[in-house]
Automatic annotation (TrEMBL):
Family matches, as InterPro entries: Peptidase_S1_PA
Organism name: Polyangium jinanense
GO-annotated molecular function: peptidase activity
Highest taxon in the source lineage: Bacteria
Listed SUPFAM superfamilies: Trypsin-like serine proteases, Type III secretory system chaperone-like
Keywords: Hydrolase, Protease
GO BP: proteolysis
Protein name listed in UniProt: Serine protease
Length: 391
């Protein structure tokens, strides 16, 4: 970053009322949005308190928690979403004492313009990231920032603020035309492209609270449910708050779950992970939890089933039995420890599965073997059986 640009950014931080910078004022209107186990950045955009954030932050949840850097917290209800553009709008259900940020719809983000983003970080604090607009958005295309914000941008939703303290756009993880996925963390959706959404939400809060949250297919705009993998109207794959760049590997898992009668979108727990409960074919045991994970390169499918807790006594013969089982009876599966829990796992290259039925058959065999080991370890050592993620 040149010294001239750095100087401009330093000047920017000192604008505003005496004793307080523009950013000092702006950060009071930025919030952390927590949805289940995920969190992201949001900011107050309207006088009725509506917060703009990313759809990847809220996912398919309708209830979230909003928290300010100063420690105020409030429940929030998701009142509108746009999965294709990675947008979500949240209505606070109680006052959080934050004024709306001023918006700059025109001019659009300009090439070379110094800007700042405020990004929610763990602990409800905010990271200040300075950048420069390196690509203008034309014809509805997204603009972009330099340098790359990388992992700091999290799930998106952060406001992009100009030198006067106005929001000129929001960080989105939607795809930018002609750019690969690695550029998503620095894409800007200009405020002007939010105008219609904000106008529809600029009504008394009591009216918004009565609205039904609807997710619409990006292909045909028909409403869709999180319980579906594909749109019932046009048949395209529906977006998910979690996604991986390993489309081929993801398809293998999705098709395998479909063969088991399970909706992959509903079972998904992360960008490369799913969790289901499965009973071995023909078995009468209580279903076991199976976690499915793709490695970071999308080359391996890894399945894991919890068996038992490590017993409080007789550790030496217990561990000896585990080692013997790995050598003689577990076959392609492996017994290992995750803390004080014994886990049965299976790992194979994605390319090893010729069809979805191959991996579906592995589920049956893995759970059947898990039932056998669980019974033996409980009977011989009094180990506490485990069948789900409560461990």
């Amino acid at each position: 970053m040149s010294s001239r640009i750095a100087s401009s950014l330093a000047d920017f931080m000192q604008h505003g009322n005496p004793g307080e910078s523009v950013l000092g004022v702006a950060r009071r209107s930025v919030v952390t949005v927590t949805s289940g186990t995920s969190s992201g950045t949001g900011w107050v955009a309207l006088g009725n308190g509506v917060v703009v954030t990313s759809w990847r932050t809220v996912g398919f949840q309708s209830e979230v928690v909003l928290s300010t850097e100063e420690g105020r917290r409030a429940a929030g209800r998701v009142v509108a979403v746009d999965a294709e553009r990675d947008l979500a709008f949240v209505l606070p259900l109680e006052a959080i004492g934050a004024a709306p940020l001023p918006l700059r719809a025109d001019p659009l983000p300009r090439l070379g313009e110094p800007v700042t983003t405020l990004i929610a970080a763990p602990g409800d604090t905010f990271v200040t990231a300075m950048a420069v607009v390196c690509a203008e958005g034309r014809g509805g295309e997204l603009a972009a920032l330099d340098p790359d914000l990388g992992a700091r941008a999290g799930r998106g939703g952060s406001p992009v603020i100009d030198a006067a303290g106005r929001v000129i756009g929001v960080i989105t993880t939607a795809r930018r035309i002609g750019r690969d996925a690695l550029d998503r963390a620095r894409c800007i959706l200009p405020v002007g492209l939010l105008a219609r959404d904000l106008r529809a939400l600029d009504v008394p809060a009591s009216e918004l609270g009565e609205r039904t949250l609807i997710h619409r297919c990006p292909g045909c705009t028909e409403a869709f449910s999180a319980d579906n993998d594909r749109c019932e109207s046009c048949g395209i794959l529906l977006p998910h708050a979690f996604e991986t760049e390993s489309a081929g590997a993801e398809r293998v898992v999705r098709d395998a779950l479909t063969a088991l009668g399970i909706v992959a979108n509903k079972a998904r727990t992360g960008p490369r992970s799913w969790r289901i409960h499965h009973r071995a074919l023909g078995g009468d045991a209580t279903p076991s939890e199976v976690t499915i994970r793709l490695d970071s390169a999308g080359l391996q499918v890894i399945l894991r089933v919890p068996l038992v807790r490590v017993p409080s006594a007789n550790h030496e013969p217990f561990y000896r039995l585990l080692l013997t089982a790995n050598d003689q009876t577990s076959g392609v599966c492996r017994l290992s420890l995750a803390g004080d829990v014994v886990v049965l796992s299976f790992s194979e290259p994605v390319s090893a599965f010729a069809s979805e039925h191959d991996i579906a058959a592995v589920f049956h065999d893995l759970v059947r073997l898990a039932d056998q080991y669980r019974k033996v370890l409980a009977e011989l050592f009094g180990a506490e059986p485990l069948r789900d993620g409560s461990w």
